[in-house]
Amino acid sequence: MLKMIKKGDIVARISYHKDVIFVVDLVIDNKIAILTGITTRLKADSPVEDLEVINKKEIDNIYRNIDEKIDKKVNTKETSKGSFLKRSDKIIYTGKILHLDGDRKYSEKSNLYYKKMGLKAIVKNIPESRQVNVANMLIDRYNPDILVVTRTRPA
Q1: For the residues of 50-104, what is the DSSP string, one character each?
Q2: CATH number given to 93-150
Q3: pTM of the full predicted structure?
């Protein structure tokens, strides 16, 4: 039976044990789907027959689990002895972060997580093709201690 996967569907790859949730960007001849990771920054392609549409309840659970994991990491810090300290138990000084990201959704997500962690971060959504041209200007403008550049990686 031919699967009807369409642009905008939320799917997972069966052969990868549904490890990453994707949105379908494009379907080519109803055979190959071009995918963008939702919770993981990843671009991939997949045969349509290897995809399973994920229902809204599963998606909500996945987002909730990710948010809980991040909140737990934000609120606790593992020490070298394996015990955990609450973030508020220790003053942590960090430098200023400049983060360049070509994907608006991930830029917004990164900015939210930096704020949750109490970090000083400037997140700029810059298309990957322009990042090399504007990086020096942004470094001069913001004088960051840390530069983060995120790029899409092929599957």
Answers
A1: GEEEPPHHHHHHHHHHHHHHHHHHHHEEE-TTS-EEEGGGS------EEEEES-H
A2: 3.40.50
A3: 0.61
